[in-house]
Every structure is written in structure tokens, then in C-alpha cells.
Amino acid sequence: MTEPSSDNPVLEAVKPFLQHLDDLRRALVWSASALGIGMLIAGLFAPTLFKILKAPLAGVVPNPDLFLRTMDVTGAMSVAMQTLFWGGLLLSMPVIVFSICWFVFPALTLKERRTILAGLVMAVFLFIGGVLMGYFLALKPALQIMMWFNTWMGIGIEFFTVTSYTGFVLKLLISFGLTFELPMILLILGHLGIINSNQLRDKRRHAIISILILSAIITPTQDPFCQLLLAVPLVIFYEACIWIIKAKEKARGI
Q1: Could you tell me if 50 and 96 lie in one domain?
Q2: Number of Cβ atoms within 10 Å of the Cβ of 64
Q3: What is the tally of structural domains in the chain?
Q4: Where are the beta strands (DSSP E) in 33-167?
Q5: Which among 75, 107, 139 is the end of a domain?
Q6: Is the full-model pTM beyond 0.90?
Q7: Which secondary structure element, helix H or strand E, spans residue 85, and what is its range?
Q8: CA–centroid distance for 41 within its chain
Q9: Is 94 helix (H, G, I), strand (E, B) or coil?
């Protein structure tokens, strides 16, 4: 960490290296403790969370409860641990973000602090929006397409294993949530002056191709529907970022 800039409202003395390590240790302990508590809380609702995850199967197979089975003694435990971890991470995220800010902010300027705080708030809403879009718009069609491929290939399928199904659903939802962070990154870089609207406009074609490739890589299915469902909003977000950054540049007289 470096000495705070002159535009920082509180000029703090430069901390010695060992104190920085102690601060990092505290931040990590806070984050780990929050994750553990979040997992305990999520454990109380694990069956309910799993019901939510398997709900989209209702329109794909006749009886979702009988269609999901386990072939392993530890199958239910594996599903429970996945549910506990991601549910606990979601619940503990505010504390983890606070810990990161507490450690990093003393080295940042006032402008950088405000930008990062605004970016974090935007990141939360974008991630939730991406997950909801994946759950309500992409998950059920993706399952239907996977079932169709089995029928088309002449492969009989009597059930899904719970571990395979849970992993598939979580990968799809997380991929949608993470990729929706793209506009937040672009807006932060634009606000800090690292990129500008002209650069984004000139690289539009390259960006669209990169988005299509990224969508094809990160989606757990290989069907064009899910890839386009993920890529189209990202292209729209990219265009919106160009106009937002351009408006800020005009406001600053750039």
C-alpha cells in the first residue's frame, strides 16, 4: 500500500510493512468468519434452496422429485455443501466487501474511493440481475435442449444425478452473474480515465466478437440459445457504456 494522495480527506501516516500484514490478516479473518457464519445460516434453508434450484425441472420432466437421484452415498452431502457454500458466500458478501475496502481504501484517493464504492453497488445489482435472468429465462430452455439432444442421439435417460444437475444449474447461474459485471468494469475504467468512449467505439467489432466467444466458453451448454441470451445483453451493455462514458466526458469538457 502506498502513501495516500493529497486529495485524500484524511492524511494518514504510512504504515510499516508488518502492520500492513496484520491488517491483511484481520481482513482475511473477518472474511473467513463471515463466510462460515453465512454457510451456517444457509444450512438452515438448504432444503428450500435446493427446491428452488430444481423448480425449473417441473416443465421439463413429469416428476422432478423422482427424476433427480443419486448414485453415491455422499451425493446428498455434495449437493448440500455446494448449496451451503454459494448461499453462504452470497450472505457474507457485504462483510467480505467491507473487509476488502477497509484494507485497500487508506491507499486510495477520494475520487478512487467513490468510484469503487459506486462500482461495488452496481456490481451487486448486475450480478443479481444476471443470476435472475439465467434462472428465469435460460435455465428451463437449456434443460429442454439437453433433453432434446439425448432424444435426438437416441440416448435413453431415466434420471439425472443430483450432483450433475446441481453443478449444471450453479455453473449456468454463476456464469450469467459474473459476465454481467462487464459494464461495471468498463464504467470504472472510463470514470478513472483509463479508457474513453472513442476507444470503445473503435473496438466495437472486436468487443462483439469477444463477447460471442466468451459466451460460448462460459455457458455450460453449447446451444446457441443460451449463448445468444447471454451475449445480447452484454452487447447492449457495451453500447450503453459508450454513451454513459461519452456523457461524462462532455460534462467534464473533454
Answers
A1: yes
A2: 17
A3: 2
A4: 68-69, 160-161
A5: 107
A6: no
A7: helix 75-104
A8: 21
A9: helix
Residue from 26, 14, 170, 5 nearest 89 by CA: 170
DSSP string, 181-243: THHHHHHHHHHTTSS-HHHHHHTHHHHHHHHHHHHHHHSSS--HHHHHHHHHHHHHHHHHHHH
pLDDT at position 242, please?
93
3-state secondary structure of 160: strand
**pLDDT tens column, 129-170:** 889 999 999 899 989 888 888 888 888 788 889 999 998 998
Answer yes or no: is 223 within a domain.
yes
Q: Which residue range forms the structural domain that includes residue 178?
A: 109-254
Q: Rounded to whole angstroms, how far apart are CA atoms 187 and 209?
A: 20
Question: 149: which 3 cell numbers?
Answer: 439432444
Grid coordinates representing 85 are 457454500
Residue 133 has φ and ψ, to the nearest 5°, of: -65, -40
Residue 60 lies in a domain: yes
